[in-house]
Design a protein that fits this description.
Elements: H1 8-12, H2 19-28, H3 43-53, H4 63-72, H5 79-88, E1 103-105, H6 107-113, H7 144-153, H8 157-162, E2 164-166, E3 171-172, H9 184-193, H10 195-209, H11 213-218, H12 223-234, H13 243-251
Antiparallel strand pairs: 1-2, 2-3
Helix pairs in contact: 3-7, 4-10, 5-13, 9-10, 12-13
Length: 252
């Protein structure tokens, strides 16, 4: 399959990467029926976003790849990264039953990052307040985060794909550059295709975003040794959900 990727220079021209560019990208990546590249994001464009990202045959990560990720984090074996994966990846792993990668859409982040502030309109996918984290509130069989993403992307693709937490480890699309991508849509596409990409995002978040390498390497079977990582990764609420004790338990 031909790939449309962005150079760093193109990424700097993000305002030009509009709905028409996204429609072209979707066509190259398998949209059916082929979209008219008109810059108007309607029902066909929204459906194409959901259609092409569904994948029930994604490549699993292999042990040698997991070992390589662990070593890149400074570890000698995979015990710590496996413990973190069990605790942090949630009940779905990396994909919903539909084959869509797990995402969490953040409507307040889209509101904040939309490029043309004059076009801000209160809606179910755009709001200055966080919340409304539903699964299928309208009972139409489409995961609500994905449905909101499809609507938001037809307004501002760059802001929309930055406003989702992606994959097993819920790394925010905002960190696409730190994870080695020129656009967050490419980050989500990588998560669609392989489990390795999910672990690479975790690695890059630990090393390049949150500066958690030392905290990661302190993880042990003792909950106190897991506090720094749990707090750095999950925020102040880590203790409420006992992330540090859960990681320690997995280490045991």
């Amino acid at each position: 399959m031909q790939q449309i990727t962005l150079t760093a220079q193109e990424a700097e021209r993000a305002k030009d990467l509009n709905v028409a560019w996204m429609q072209k990208w979707l066509n190259v990546h398998g949209a059916y029926p082929i979209l008219e590249v008109d810059g108007v994001g309607g029902s066909l464009t929204r459906a194409a976003i959901i259609q092409i990202f569904a994948n029930k045959q994604a490549f699993p990560i292999y042990e040698y790849q997991l070992q390589a990720i662990a070593e890149q984090l400074g570890d000698v074996n995979t015990k710590r990264i496996k413990a973190v994966a069990v605790v942090e990846s949630g009940p779905y792993g990396g994909w919903f039953a539909s084959g869509l990668p797990v995402i969490l859409y953040e409507r307040h982040k889209f509101w904040e990052w939309v490029q043309d502030k004059s076009k801000r309109v209160l809606s179910w996918f755009s709001n200055p307040k966080a919340g409304d984290y539903t699964m299928d509130a309208n009972n139409n069989g489409i995961n609500d985060s994905w449905e909101k993403l499809s609507y938001a992307a037809c307004k501002d693709p760059l802001a929309a794909f930055q406003a989702i937490s992606i994959g097993k480890f819920q790394v925010l699309g905002r960190w696409y550059r730190e994870c080695g991508y020129n656009h967050p849509i490419e980050m989500l596409w990588a998560a669609r295709n392989s489990e390795l990409a999910h672990y690479e995002m975790l690695r890059d978040y630990i090393l390049k975003v949150a500066n958690l390498k030392a905290a990661f390497l302190r993880i042990s079977s003792h909950p106190e040794d897991c506090r720094a990582f749990a707090k750095g990764y999950n925020g102040p609420a880590y203790e409420k959900y006992a992330y540090h004790t859960k990681i320690a338990k997995e280490m045991r």
